[in-house]
Amino acid sequence: MKNWKYIISLSFLMCLLFGMHNFALAEEKNDEKFNAGDVIIEHILDSYEWHIFTWKGHDVSVYLPCIVFNEGKCYTFSSRDFHENELYKTVNKTNSEELVFTIAKDGNYKGKIVILNADGTQKRPFDISITKNVLALFISCALIIVLFYLVTKAYQKRGDKAPKGLQSLFEMLIVYVRDDIARKAINEKSVDKYLPYLITVFFFIFINNLLGLIPIFPFGANITGNIATTATLALFTFFITNLFGNKEYYKDIFNTPGVPWFLKYPLPLMPLIETVGCFTKPFVLAVRLFANITAGHIVVLGFISSIFIVAQISAAGGAAMSVFSLILAIFVDLIELLVAYIQAYVFTLLSALYFGMASKEE
Amino acid sequence: MELISPDFGYIFWMTLAFGIVFFFIAKFAFPVIGKALKNREQKISEALEQAERTHEEMKNLQAKNEELLKQAREEREEMLNEARISRDKIIEEAKEKAKAETNRLVESAKETIENERKAAMTDIKNEIANISIKVAEKILERELSKDEAQMEYIDKIIKETEQQ
After folding, report:
1. How many CB atoms lie within 10 A of CB A2?
2. pTM for the complete prediction?
């Protein structure tokens, strides 16, 4: 049976993934007290350096550039300074005084770069540092562009012939997005206008979801489980929906047909509800994707953390727990593969539905 | 809290990166892919139609062939029938002719025989007359002067012979 080859390699991959999760967490064991909550949140959050693993007490990390603006001046430095000194001192370019950057340990700006004022207060500068998530985002975007470039080349080379290899995989998904998502939600006339965006958004979410499941550098950053990513995507959908909405769409919002007049005048109840709906739709999109992906990561990390929690009590218990956690974590990882696809599908489908509403014909 | 508060710097990079990906796909990748897909779909549907048409044509052709075969068979049958009829006719005619010819031959043979017989009779008559004349001459040579009654008697005999 040819299929066995794939099943075995898939199981091997899953074991590898699991092993990597373990490996990523093993370093935390060095601390005297293992705090599962902190560890999990730390793995999900963004950071200014990309911690790969700890080797004999030394952290092996990729230190990323920090780019901050203060009073109109740009300051760039390496996050290595934070790792070694917890501070980065420089000269204030506006008044030549000393300027101290640090990463806030608590408060509103916890985990972010702040300027330490002389009186001990913190000020958050305008911060466009290349963080772990930004780097991971660049890598995945580059990957998406390369993949699409290869597929486009394949189409140019093969012409009308049947697709092959990577091209067939992409074709399956592209045709799926086109026929089963876009064409079903949007009318024939406007579907071509929205299709490139829907395809981009589908592949962006799907590929980032999958890369988020691989816990090895340079993947494994929690991109689609970051509220800023999903919010940006939702904003794109929001702007495209409302900027390309036709007369019919705006009539539905401000003068909803089929509702009694007293809901519109003197108190514009329906228009208000519809307007709020315009904003809640993308908000829900953002929250759904963020929550689904983050929850999946938390569950996998939780199962693995449970090994260390039990191991602190007894070594034998930890060994027994690892077998149990292994099975559960692999199971959740497999579900995550499913979720990676489903969430990409749901986001694309809902975006398509909103576009369909904004471009519907009488 | 940190988990659900979007970071502006990240949004900036995200907008940029996603914008670039979107631009690349919308401007370069999708036009090529979409066109190729459309072309291929058109080609496939055309090919299917063509196949359908060919199939229909084949069916028609087959029906035509069958028709032709049937016609040919009928024609052969007809020809065979005709041949049989004309054969019968020829045989009939030949028989008829043969009979007529036979009759004619028999007729002419009869006629010939009759003629021959008549000729023979004439010959015999002439011979007899000659013989008789010769006999009479012989008798006459001897007894002509002798008797008138004898002469009469001879005449009477000749007349009798003639009447016969």
Report:
1. 5
2. 0.77
Does residue B69 sit within a domain?
Answer: yes
With a CB-CB cutoff of 8 Å, which residues 6-65 of chain A face chain B? Answer: 41, 44-46
Dig out the tokens for A17 from the structure.
Answer: 């993934």
How many domains are contained in chain B? Answer: 1
What residues have CB less than 8 Å from A220, skipping those under 6 apart?
Answer: A20, A24, A136, A211, A212, A213, A214
ipTM value > 0.85: yes
Whether B47 and chain A come into contact, CB under 8 Å, resolves to no
A294 with B30: Cβ contact below 8 A: no
Q: What are the residue ranges in chain A where pLDDT is below 70?
A: 1-2, 5, 8-33, 362
Q: Which own/partner pairs from A339-343 qualify as long-range (CB within 8 Å, at least 24 positions apart)? A: A339/A209, A339/A292, A339/A293, A339/A296, A340/A206, A340/A209, A340/A210, A340/A212, A340/A213, A341/A206, A341/A209, A343/A205, A343/A209, A343/A224, A343/A288, A343/A289, A343/A292, A343/A293
**Domain around B35:** 8-163
| pLDDT number for residue B20 | 95
Query: In this structure, what token pair is assigned to residue A345?
Result: 């599908």
For chains A and B, what is the number of CB pairs under 8 angstroms?
118
d(CA A146, CA A149): 5
